[in-house]
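Retro notes - structure team

What went well: the batch runner handled both jobs without manual restarts.
What didn't: labels got mixed up in the shared folder, which is why I'm recording both outputs here explicitly, each with its sequence directly above its C-alpha cells.

Job 1
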Amino acid sequence: MRLLLASLFVLLLPITARAANPPADDRPAYRLFTAEGKPVAFDKMTKELATADVVLFGEQHNDPIAHWLELQVARDLAERKAGQLVLGLEMFERDVQPLLQQYNVGELEAKAFEEQSRPWPNYPTDYKPLLELARQQKLRAVGTNVPRRYAQQVAKGSLTVLDALPAEEKAWLAPLPIKVDYELPGYQGMRKMFGGDASHAAGVQNIIQAQALKDATMAHFIRQSRQPGQLLLHVNGAYHSDNHDGIVWYLRQAEPALRIRTISTVAQAQLQKLDKEHLQKADYVLVVPEDMTKTY
C-alpha cells in the first residue's frame, strides 16, 4: 500500500508542478499579485478581502477582464458575507439613486431605468451584470458619484461655485467645504498630465479640484451607505484609488480605523511577474495583457 501511494505521489508531481507554474507557452487572460509582487490565488485574495469594511476595485473602464473579475469578486464576497455585502458604483450619480434603488428592488423596469438613470455607454456589457447580481442576491446597490455637471462646473470655476447651490442639490455632494491635498500622488500626476506650469496653474488646479470633488463625494457616500459589520464593494476607475490616495485618502480622513482594501487593474506585456512601476499600487493588482481586447 505504501509503495502504491508513493508511486501515485511521484506520478502527480508533474501535474501539480504544472498547475503552480504554468507552461511558458500558456496565454493566461490575467494574473493576480499582492502589493509586493507575489502571485496570489483568487480564493486567497477574496478570503482576505472579506475581512475588510470597504473594498475598492479599481478598473480600467474598457477592460473586459476587470469587468468579469468584478462580477466574480462580488459573487464570492456575497457568499462569504451572507447578506452583509453592499455594492457601490462610481458609474451612477447621487441624483439618480432613487431610480437605482427602485430598479434594485424590482419596482422599476429595466427599460425605464436605463432611459432615466444616465448609464454609461458600456453599461449593458460591463455594469448591468453587477446590478443583475445585486437583484438576484438582494444586495443593496448604491451610486456614489457626484452629478457630472457639478464636476464640470468646478473644472471651469473652482470649488467655490458649489457654495451657491440650493441645499437640496448640495445633498448630492460631499459636505462643503472640501479639503484638497494637492501633494497626493494622484493629484501630482494630474498636474504633470495637464501641464501644471505657471501659465496654466489656475486651470490645472480647477481640474484637480473637480477630481477631488468626485473622490470626496464617493468616499462620503461609501461611508454613508454601509452599516457596522457590512462590507461595501465599490467599483471605480483605478485612478480614484491607486496608491491608496483619492477615495482612500478621504475615507481615512473621516474614519481612520476603517479597514480598506484596494485592487488595481494594470496592463503589461508579460504576466509572469509584476512590473516594478506597479508595486505597491494597491493591496492586490490585477494584471491583464497589453493586447487584451477592449469593450469600447
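Job 2
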Amino acid sequence: MNFSQFVAILQARWKLSAALLGLVLLATAAFSLLSPKRYTATASVVVDVKPDPITGLVLGPVLNPSIMATQVDIIQSSRVATRVARNLKLNNNPLVREQWQEATGGAGDINDWLARNFLTQLEVRPSRESNVISIGFQAPDPAFAAALANAFVQAYIDTAVELRVDPAKQYSGFFDQRAKDARDALEAASARLSVFQRDNGIVGSDERLDVETARLNDLSSQLVMMQAISSESRSREAQAAAGKGDRLSEAMVNPVVTNLKFELNRAEAQLQELNTRLGDKHPQVEQAKASVAELRSRLNTELQRSTSSVGVTASINASREAQTRSQLEAQRAKVLKLKEQRDAMAVLQRDVENAQRSYDTIVGRLNQTQLESQTQQSNINVLSPATVPLKPSSPKVLLNMALAAFVGTLLAVGLALVRELLDRRVRSTTDLIDTLGVPVLGVVPKPILARGKPSLMAQRVISGRLASPTRSAKA
C-alpha cells in the first residue's frame, strides 16, 4: 500500500474515522469533567553538605547519586509513612477506622494500612544537579494534601535522626565495654611494670646502665694499659734472668753499680798492665786479680740486688692485670644484667604505652559515639514547606484531550484500515492493476450530467465496485 492508496482509503472511510475520534474525545472530556478534583501539595528539603560538627565528615560539594537515591528510598519507606500516620493520630478518627474496617475487615494494623495508602499518593523527585528533594502528596482536600506533605517532611527528618542516633547508641554501648576492658589491660600492664621496677630497684630516672657502662669502658682501658705494663715487666724479668741485668734501666741508673763498673774497669786495666809488665806469677798480679774478682763479685751482687725488683714489679703487674681482668668481667656481667633488665622494662613500658594508646583511642571513639547518640540535629533541612494548593493537579483536561486526540486519531486510522481490509474496494488504477493483472491503457474522465450528476457508468466507477466484463458491456 502506497501513500495515495492510504489517502484514498481515509477519504472513503472518513465518516467512520471521524465518528470514532469524536467518540474518544467525547469520552475523554466526560471523564475529565466528571472525575473528582485532586490537589497536590509539594514541600522541598535540602541535604546539607557542610562538615558534620560531630564526626567532621564531609559529603562533598555534590552528593553521590547513590546517596540521593538512598534518601529517596528512605522517604518512600513504610517506616516514614507509618510515622506520619502515628504523628497525625489518624487511627483515632472514627471515619478512618470505619474505612479501615471496610477495607481490611479489621485485620492488621491501621497505621500500616494508612502507610500503604499514603505511599500510593506520595511523589518524591530528587533534583538532578542539586541537593534538593521535592516531596509531593496528592489528595482530594488541598489542606489535607499540604498537611500530609509537611508531615512526610517532618517524619523523614525524624527518621534520618533515628537512623543516625540508633547505631550511635549501639556503638556507644560497645565502646563503653571495650573502654572498660582497655582500662583493665592498662592497669594490669602498669602493675607489671611497677612490680618489675620494685623488684630490680629501678626508678623512673634510673641511669645506672650509663654509669656502669662508663665504668666498664674505664676498666677495659685500664686492662689494656695493665696488659702493656705487665708485658714489659715480664720482658724485663726475662732479660734479668738471662744475665743481661746490667742492660736494664734499674742497673744503668744505679750509682753503686756505676761506681763498681768504673772501679772494675780500672782494676782490669791495672791487672792487664801488671800482667804485661810483671807476669802472671807476680804477687802484685795476684793481688790485682783478687781485687778484680772481688769487684766483679760485688758488681754481680749489686746487679742482683738492683734487678731483683724487676721480678717483684712483674709479679705485682701480673696480679694487677688479673685483678683488673676480674673486675672487667664482673663489670661486663653487671652491665649485661642491667641491659637485660632495661630490655625487659622496655617491653613492659611498650605494653603500657600500647595499652594507653588503645585506651585513649577507644575513649575518643566512645566520646564521639556518645555525642552522636545524644544529637537531635540532622543534615536534612526544610527548604520550603508545603502550602495549600489553589488549583487542582488532576484531572488535567488539556493534557487528557491532547492524549485523547492522539490516541483517537491512531484508533480511527486503524479502524479505517481494518474496515477496508474486510470490505476491499477499488480506489485507484493501482487497485485495478493489482486485482485484474492487466495494464491500464488510459483513464477516461468521469462524465458529468447537466444537473451535475454522473452517468450510470460513472456512478459505478465512483462507487468503486469491480464489475465483470459482461456486465460492463451490457451497461
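One thing worth noting from job 2: The two ends are 31 Å apart (CA to CA).
We'll revisit the folder naming next retro.
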